[in-house]
Amino acid sequence: MRAEMLGPASTAATVATGRDTLSDVPGPVAVRAPDAPSPLQRLRAFAGEAFDGARSTEGHGIADVATITQVSTRTRQSVRTERHPRAILVAVLEGQKRIQAESTTTVVGPGDLVVMPAARPLCLVNCPDARSGRYRAVCIDVGPRVAAGVAARLAELALASPAWLAEGARPEVVRMDAPLCEALLHFCQGLLAAEAHPALHAHRLAEVLLALALQGGALRPALDDDVVLAVRRRVRAAPAGPVGVERLARDLGASAATLRRRMAARGLSIARVVRDERMAMARLLILDDALSVAEVAARCGYASPSKFARRFAEATGAAPLAYRKRARSA
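The structure assignment produced for this chain is given below.
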C-alpha cells in the first residue's frame, strides 16, 4: 500500500570544455521521492490531530448516523460491554485489544478492525504498546438506519449481509485494506468537521460499511467458530431462499444426521436458526421507510405478510409498523 515515485530527473548542464565530446558531462539522475504514507498511517495521523492527543474517551458525531470516539490510554484498561444497542467498529491504531468471551480470548493489533455487533456482552482489555506505552483506537457506533440501508443495498447487489448486522452475533475481525482505510478516513474527516448535511455523513458511513462487506472474505470470527455460526452464515447469504437440512449439510461437508446432532448438542434446530436469522434481518429492513411490510416480508423469506407480521410481533413484542415508529421516536 506504499507508493514509490521517481522525482523529475535532474537536467544536465552544457559545459564549455573545449572538447568535442560531452562524455564527461553527467547524465540525468533519478531522484527518489519520499515514500507516500499508507492509508493506515494517514488514519493514525488524522486521529492524533483531530482528537488533540486526548487520553480520555470523547464522543463526536451525529446521533442518528454515528458517533466517533477515540480511546487512548497509557495503562491497561478493562471494559465490559453490556448489550450495547448499536454495532461498533473499532479500528486499532496502537497497542493491542484482547476480546474475551466465555473461555476464548482473541488478540488484535494495529491495522485490525474489530466489528462488535449490537446486544453482545463482551469483556475487552486494552493493552498499551510495549514501545510507545500507549493504546489507541478509533471507535464508531453505527446508527441502525444506516445499517438497515446498507443491508438493503447489499441485497440489491446480491451480496450476503455481514454477520455482524444481526443483534447478538459474534464479533469479527478484519485486517484493514487500503479501500477500507480510505473510506474510514473520509468518513471521520467529514463527521468531525460537522459541516456537511447528515445525509452526506450517512452516505459516507455506508461507504465504510460497503467496503467492509466487500472485504468480507477476510473477516474472521473473533471468537471460536462452530457449526451454529456456519449455519447462520448460510442463511444470511440468502434469507429469502429455501433452506433445507440436506442442502445445508452438503454445503458444510457433513451428513444431515450429523448436522442435526451437532445443532441439538447446542440446544438448537435448523428451523430455529432460520427463523432467528430472518427476524434479525427483518428488524434491520423494517427501519427503512422506503420498504413496505410486504416487501420486508418477501426479502426475509415470507410469502405471507400476515404470517410475517405475527412472527415479527412474537420476536420483538411489536407489530412491524409499530416497531418502525418506536425506533424512529427513539
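Interim note for the steering committee: Residues 198-214 form the longest helix (17 residues). The two ends are 42 Å apart (CA to CA).
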